[in-house]
Write a structure and sequence with these properties.
This protein has 233 residues and is an alpha+beta fold. It has one domain: Aminopeptidase (3-Layer(aba) Sandwich). The protein has six helices and seven strands. Strands 1-2-3-4-5-7-6 form a seven-stranded mixed beta sheet, sandwiched between helices. The longest helix has 18 residues. The N and C termini lie far apart (36 Å).
Amino acid sequence: MPLVLQPATEADAPRAAQIENLAYAANPFNKFLFPGPFPEPESGRNPRAEEMIKVLQEDPSVRWLKVVDTDIEPTEDNAQMIAFGQWNLKDGRQIPEKPRTWGPGCNAEACDTLFNGLARLRTKHFSDKKHVRKLTDASSTLFKPRTKSCIDLRLLQVDPKHQRRGAGKMIVTYVIEQAKALGLPMFLESTVEGHPLYLSCGFRDFDLQVVNFAKWGKDADNVSYFMRLETQG
């Protein structure tokens, strides 16, 4: 079952959107973020794939990767592709991030709090402010904030049928190699589920976002970790 890492292209966007949907289908917060109902998309359209392609076309910092299982015969629906990743080379050319808006079927307040909250933290850490923050965990390390030039792993998704085969780690390892070659620090945001993988690759927490969902009907916190990997010294 040989897995191969390859660049992904616009033609892979529909499968990338499908993998994203499958990967987050079991997330217990989904029904509170996206309770529905949703309008039917126009025939032949894939709004999420179109959104991803638009970002790729407009933002020169964006790079796409995929992992394919060469034992799976190529098919029209691109089932051979089992994982997708996006990393951004933040070197001053990137398109400034805009707040997202939420359409019918979404809990706009919850989505704004979670996703735009993460965007606001990204903006803070990519600024030049001389600011540091220490986690309450006594074992955590104090890190400097993000610098202007760095690498940001923005998306990493694996088809649930192919998880725990090393596809996700292949993508992470490749991007780490790019960061080391460029001498740049690397950053990412992690869910609770993905946290052990990134810790095993050498990343360490330097900030986090905690959103309590009690007001939207789920008595639990959604935790997102901001993580950093130093590639020099």
